[in-house]
Structures are given as structure tokens and as C-alpha cells.
Amino acid sequence: MNALSSSRQQAIRSLIEHFIAERLAAKLEGLADDDPKRATLLAQYTPAAWLEDAARRAGQIQAVTHTLKAIHPDAKGTNLYCLPNSLPQHALVGSHCLGDDFAGDVVGNAAALDVYKMLKLEHDGQPLLSLLLAEDEGALAALHDDAEQSRSLTAAFTGITCARGGLASHTHGKQLYWLTGDDPCNDADFHLLAPLYASSLAHRVYQQIQADRFGEPAKEARQARRDKQFHPGVIHEYPDLAVQKLGGTKPQNISQLNSERRGDNYLLASLPPSWQQRDVRLPIRTRDGSIFPAFGKRPAVAELVRNLRDFLLSGPPPNVHTRNSRDELLTELIDELLLYAAELWAFEPGWSAKPECNLNRAEQLWLDFRRAEHDAVFASEWRHMDWLTEIRERFANWLNARLVSKLSVGDVENSYWAKQAGSNALWLDLDWLNQAWVDQFEREQRDLEAEHE
Amino acid sequence: MNELPVSNGLLIIPHLRVQNANAISSPLTWGFPAISAFIGLMQAVERKLKGRFALMFDSVGVICHSHEAQVSEGYQRAFRLTRNPVNERGETAAIVEEGRIHLDITLIFGVSGYREDGQPDPVQGDWQQRRQIATEITELLGSLRIAGGSVFLDPQHKPLLEPLAQGEERSKQFRYLRRRWLPGFALVSRDDLLQAHLQHLQGENVSADLLDAWLDLSRLNLRAQETRPASETQPANVEWRAQRVVPNGWLVPIPVGYSALGPLQAAGSVANARDGQTPLRFVESLYSIGQWLSPHRLRDVDDLLWYASAAPEAGLYRCHNLYSQTLCTDDME
Fold first, then answer.
1. Rounded CA gap, B175 and B165, in Å?
2. Complex ipTM above 0.90?
3. Contacts of B224 in chain A (CB under 8 A)
4. Is A249 a domain residue?
5. Where are the domains of chain B?
6. Which tens digits make up the pLDDT trace of A378-420?
7. Domain tally for chain A?
8. How far is A392 from chain B, CA to nearest CA, in Å?
9. Inter-chain contact A272–B40, Cβ cutoff 8 Å?
10. Bridge partner residues of B68 (DSSP)
């Protein structure tokens, strides 16, 4: 054995001895001097005896990165220890992203957890378990002076990363069929996939979210925001974050890391934006007999109008890129308008016939078009399509007014803006607008007529 | 396989109501069910039809019109649970949290009709035949479950089997179809953002990894912006603003499939498997970024559709959507 591994052996051995001594001290604390337990404990906690016992108990726990229990606490089956670097690497997010820096998890008898704590002792930044798995000479020698004994201890300790018994899933575990061939009707074209819970990955995400929510730098930044002060930090918000409790009142029954997370499994929201009819009011009593004031208040619309204004104020050169960017923003605005219309179409038709409805006739014809089914006058006006031009003009007028009113008097840019507005609007190309509208509405009309026949 | 199967028709099933669908789409995400649930539904439909029509199912798109997650209010959501039966000793059973969500969705299947036994391609049939097929498949759907939730059909909304037009006509057809999917939101894949954002983050911090990029895209990042006052006597104006990678983009973390944790196990060699005839593999969920878009933002039906692939040698079982690929080609033009 060379000098390097010999000094390594010394260092690791003292690490282990220190660990055992600490545990002994904790046990002895509070015991009377003449307590007969004292002698038993002292005998149990000699390094050789403790290691031997630990090797026996190692069989009761398993080091894992992927557990089955988190999926259902009654599921008993294979748990896996997969080094992130050994997993297939690809361009999506999964445990393989963790690299060397990951928290291993433990499942099994909680009374044997101290064995895992010992294996997590770090020498030179490397846990003992990794050293033993790599058959590091120094680490092997540190366990026992006798090579034979040391080998059997190592085998027992490294055994905790191996799946126990035969491979098994469970009726409470998830198993799903995935088509691997071409024909979904052919049973042989499927694989069964049994997903396990990626505990190490979940732990890293959990730690990140905890730090972003409760870490000191995050708290300072939040305070600065409340005080409307500047702070160089970034506040990370996780909207609609959900917590799933794993293991109910006994998170330690699931796994060691789950216990550290107090059973809280953070879930990031992947909900679609919320569109709810109750958020949309029927335009029955409207300002100026028009939906446009209310439309302009919708957050998405307000933001688009702001972006459009900012873009135009930035004085873009009058070229094709500018026109494209502007048209893109205008398209989005028109899309928002069509979306708004679609939301109103979801109401029971005929609402615009109420006497208290002060909505402009053209807008009624557009937004309550299914009223035509029972209202012959309405239907003939609708077919005439004059209202289409009127809506388009109303939209253009509204947008013009919004863009101009957004500018406060005295702005440096105002003179530029006024000039642009005066010289026939770079910002609102009516021909283009016509085209966009007519396209949409012609389809709509044909569609409706087809349905009525 | 990284190509969307070419379909010659669309089967559109509007406004299905799904009650108590699985809201826990993966161990790290909740909300809308995983897209693989819809791929699985599509394959189940094809299996149940047993060749009743000369129709292959290639891909599926989903529009969510409204949703009602069964969660508590507040900053941190918790799931509203159900009460399970007591155990044999009359004690309350251990609680296993399951998330539920009610949905109103439109399903769009990319389908390929073919000629069989001298019979014409069902997609090219006349209007009434196509409606008949669409209705029959919809009735079958009504007897299935979607992402674990029961399905309710609304007779007001008629399903359609539409032949897909080609060329110029196709984009016209799509614009007309997508209008009928309003208001709602379609899920598309933004794998491209994950990669681009990783590079961006690595520009600031070399040790940033894919997981950092994914989390960063899944949250709101608020930064303070200071505007200099006009005169020195006034205090500086500070505004905290959320910065978004895609302006107005509703980005969400989504599970997109599974990655192998080890070799494929021979059929029957793993205890308690669902069947003894299918090889089994232990896997973990794989994540990417998705975007919810109003259907009027989609440029083509291909933007909407998802399909699945399997690369057992690479250990990858995943779902694809090509929205971002067509974005890239648009940028290059």
C-alpha cells in the first residue's frame, strides 16, 4: 500500500471513529454512571463491533434515487439507485441533469438510517459510499485491518445501492403501455413502462423553490419590493404552486428525503390560462354604446396597446421590418378582439334584444349574431354585412384614440408622435386592416349560412 | 422518429366535458393532464374500433376551453381530496393525495383514411357518411375515460370528420376551423426555448444546467428597475417588473414522456406486472416546456398536433409537437 492511501486510510478511519464516538456520546448522555446499560453500550460502540452490526443492518435499507413508495405508500416493489451520470443523456429535463451533485435517498427501516449516515461521511468531498463503490484502497483499508473482513464489510455496505430481490412492480404502482411499433392494435408493439418517483430530482427542485421562497436573499428582495426600493436581487415567483403531501402524517414511511421535505412535494402549475365566462360581462349597459372601452381594459389588450405605442414611440425606421412588427402587434390585437367576441358568443343568444341594452346596432349584429335565428329583421341586417365596415372603423377609431391618449403632454417624444399621427399613420394601415377583417368575416358568414341551411 | 405522420383528415370532437381528470400530470407538475394521456386515449380508440373504419389515428391536439381544478384557494394550492372507504379495522385509510380537475376540451385527431376491400377512403366520403363516422367514434369516446376522468358528451356540439385540404386551401380551412375553437387554449411544445434559455443562462453562469433553465422558464422573475428622476431632489423611481422570456407567452412546465432507468426486462420476468406478455421497463418522467396559445395564434393544424415516438435503444419514450420547429423555419425566411 502506498503512502497516499495509507494517509487516506488514517483520515477515513478517524472519520468513522469520530462518527461512532459521537453516537455513543449521545446514547450515554443522561445515563447514570452505574447503569448496567453503560457497559453494553460501550461494547456495542467499539468501531469493530459497530461496523459489523452496521453491515448486518445495511440489508434493511436501500440507497435509491428513484422510489416506488412515493407513488403509493402501500406499493412494494423495486426501487432503483441510478447515478444521474449513468442515465441516457438527452435534451429534456430529468434526473440525468443532476450530474455528480445530487442527494441520494434511502428507503427501508428507519432504525437502520445511521448506517446510511455513516456512508455519507465525506472525505475530500467524496462520500464514503462513493469511495467504497469505486473500490478506493484507502477506504477499504479504513474499514478493517484484515483484508478479508474489510471486503465483506464493503460488500455489505455497497449492497445498499442494489435493488433487493427480483425486480417487481406492484398493483399500486403505475404501469403504462407505450406504443413502440406501428400498430396500436398489435399487442406485441407495446412496452410496459413503470415510472418511479425521481426523489433526488424532486429534492433538488424542492431545495431551489424553498430557497426562492424562504431564503435570506429572497426575503431581502421581497422586502425591498414592498418598500418600493431598489435591490439587485431577483424575486422568483412560482404562480399556483401546489403541494402534494406524500405519506400523510408519516412522511418518514416514504423515504429519508421525503422526511426532510416533511412530505411536501412541490408541483409546478401547468394550467392553461383561465378563461371563465363569469369574468366576462355582457355588454348591456355600456359606455358610449360600445364594447371597446371595456375591451381596452382587458389586461392582454392594455399590454398590447402599450407595446404598440412603445414600439412606435421608439421611432423605428419606415421599412419592411417595422411594418411586419407593427402588423404582428395589430394582428394580436385583432385576435384579442375576436377572442372577446367568441367569449360573448358563448352566452345565450338574444341578449342584445333586451330593452336596456344600449349597444350600438353594428356591434349587436356582430356579438349576438345567433339572435338572427329567431329575429328576421336582425337576420336580414346581418346578411347585409354593412355592420362589418362599421365595426372595423370603430376599432380603428378606438385604437387611434388609445394610442394618442397614452401620450402625456410635455413628453419629449410628443412632437414626433404628433407628426407621425398627422402624416397618415404609419401605425394604422387601414387597407391591411380591411383585409384582415374581411378574411375573417367572410368565412364566418359562409359557415353560418351553411349551418342554417 | 421525429416526423409528424401525414394525415389526410381531421376528426374534431368539440366540447367534451371531462370530470375528475388527473390533475397531477407528473411528480413535478400539476394542472392539465399530461399530453401522453391523450396519446393513450387515441390509441385506445383505435384499438376499440378494431378496424371498424378504414382509419388510422396519427396524432392528437387538444384545446382546453375551461377548467376547474379541485384545489384550495391561496398562494400555495392544496388538493381537494376524496374520502376513501375505511380499512378492515374501521380506521381511516392512509391518505394518498390525488389531484382532480374538470375540463371542457375539444379533441382534434389527425387521421389517415385508406381504401379497403374496394371501399372508398372514409375521409373522402360524403358529408353524411363522415358525420356518421364522427358521431360513432364520439359515442365510443363517451364510454371511455380521459386521463382518468369520466366523459360527458354534449349533443349540441357536433363532431366532424374533415378531409384536410392542401396548399393555399389548407391554411384557409385551418383559419376557419380554429375560429370555432375559441375561446380556448391549445398546448404546444417549446423544446426550443429550453435549449435557447440554457445557453442564455450559461452566458451568465457557466455551471447553469438544463434543470435551472427549466425552472427559470416555469416561474416569474421580478427585477427592480430604477428610472433616474428629472431632478436630483426627487427620489429615484423604482418599479419591480416581471420579465418574460416570451412576451405575452403563457409558458408552463410539462411532462413529455419517459426516460429509461435501466434495460428492458423480458416479458414475465418482473413480478406483479400488468401482463406477462409485454416487456417491462422502469422509467422516470421527462420534462420540457409547453406553451398555451389561443387557437387563433396557430398557423397550421400541424402546430397543434402531438404524436408519440419510442426509441428503446436510447431509452426515450416521448411525445412530440412541431410548433417550435415551424417557428424556426419562419425565422429563417
1. 12
2. yes
3. 224-225, 229-232
4. no
5. 9-70+97-189
6. 888 877 777 877 887 788 778 877 876 655 434 444 444 344 4
7. 2
8. 18
9. no
10. B102
